[in-house]
């Protein structure tokens, strides 16, 4: 581990503190964190294959089959449906309905025969069950995992052959081999990297629920929003 300073807005890294970020110009966004100095050898998920340059006109493509959620409005904001391997960040104020929507999404996909792993690091199994009863959730393809260990979540995805992964929330889960608290810059960046690598290698669609700050932005470094494929913000009616 090595001490580093990061900008929470743009992800700029430096070895010394500064009141103003040299990259994006934001004030008061440079914070101290730790950085991994070696490779993480734990877990079973393989790294992305070493790619070689190809002539763009020689690359063969196949038609992507999108999974329809069964709700036209949700399919619309996803560009027509869920693409295997896509990573979506769901942001919104507390109580706006992020967790409720994700549970409904689990039901929609479970009814289509997709095996859903719903991982939560914030609520108990009893709380999720009460919400599912209120929403009349009846699919037998929804599997609930209450844990804060991101590595354990990804291992369960592989062992249970899950078709869809939902993590509620990304700020509550962490990699146990990192010497930093959940929600810190290092944890968020490295955990997202691990999850995205899993999604791409296993063609696994992933939905990440994210908290927002009082200013209305997803909590954590802005770089996370650039790492995922899609960012959706939910706002309540005024």
Descriptive notes:
- The chain has 238 residues and is of the alpha/beta class.
- The model is unreliable at 37-43 (pLDDT under 50).
- It has helices spanning 72-77, 98-111, 125-134, 150-160, 185-202, 223-227, and strands at residues 2-7, 13-14, 30-35, 87-92, 116-120, 142-146, 164-168, 206-210, 230-234.
- The protein is globular, with a radius of gyration of 19 Å.
- Helices cover 27% and strands 19% of the residues.
- It has 2 domains: 1-39; 67-234, Rossmann fold (3-Layer(aba) Sandwich).
- It has a 6-stranded parallel β-sheet with strand order 6-5-7-8-4-9, sandwiched between helices.
- It contains 6 helices and 9 strands, in the order E-E-E-H-E-H-E-H-E-H-E-H-E-H-E.
Number of helices: 6
Which strand order do you get reading across the main beta sheet? 6-5-7-8-4-9
CATH superfamily of the largest domain: P-loop containing nucleotide triphosphate hydrolases
Through-space gap between termini? 46 Å
User: Helicity, in percent?
Assistant: 25-40%
Mean pLDDT score, rounded?
85
CATH topology label of the largest domain: Rossmann fold
Number of separate domains: 2
Pick out its properties:
alpha/beta, globular, 2 domains, about 240 residues, Rossmann fold, six-stranded parallel sheet, about 20% strand, three-stranded antiparallel sheet, 6 helices, 9 strands
Task: Give a brief rundown of this model.
This protein is α/β, with parallel strands linked by helices and 238 residues long.
């Amino acid at each position: 581990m090595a001490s580093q300073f990061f900008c929470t807005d743009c992800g700029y890294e430096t070895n010394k503190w500064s009141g103003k970020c040299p990259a994006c110009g934001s004030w008061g966004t440079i914070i101290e964190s730790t950085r991994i100095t070696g490779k993480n050898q734990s877990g079973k998920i393989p790294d992305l294959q070493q790619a070689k340059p190809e002539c763009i006109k020689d690359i063969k493509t196949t038609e992507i089959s999108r999974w329809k959620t069964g709700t036209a409005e949700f399919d619309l904001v996803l560009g027509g449906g869920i693409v295997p391997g896509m990573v979506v960040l769901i942001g919104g104020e507390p109580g706006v309905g992020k967790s409720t929507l994700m549970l409904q999404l689990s039901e929609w996909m479970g009814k289509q025969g997709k095996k859903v792993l719903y991982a939560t690091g914030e609520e108990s199994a009893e709380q999720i069950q009460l919400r599912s009863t209120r929403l009349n959730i009846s699919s037998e393809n929804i599997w609930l995992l209450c844990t804060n260990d991101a590595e354990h979540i990804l291992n369960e995805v592989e062992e249970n052959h899950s078709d869809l992964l939902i993590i509620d929330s990304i700020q509550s889960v962490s990699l146990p081999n990192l010497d930093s608290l959940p929600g810190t810059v290092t944890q968020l960046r490295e955990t997202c990297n691990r999850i995205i690598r899993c999604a791409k290698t296993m063609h696994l669609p992933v939905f990440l629920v994210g908290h927002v700050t009082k200013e209305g932005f997803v909590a954590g470094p802005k770089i996370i929003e650039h790492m995922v494929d899609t960012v959706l913000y939910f706002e309540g009616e005024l």
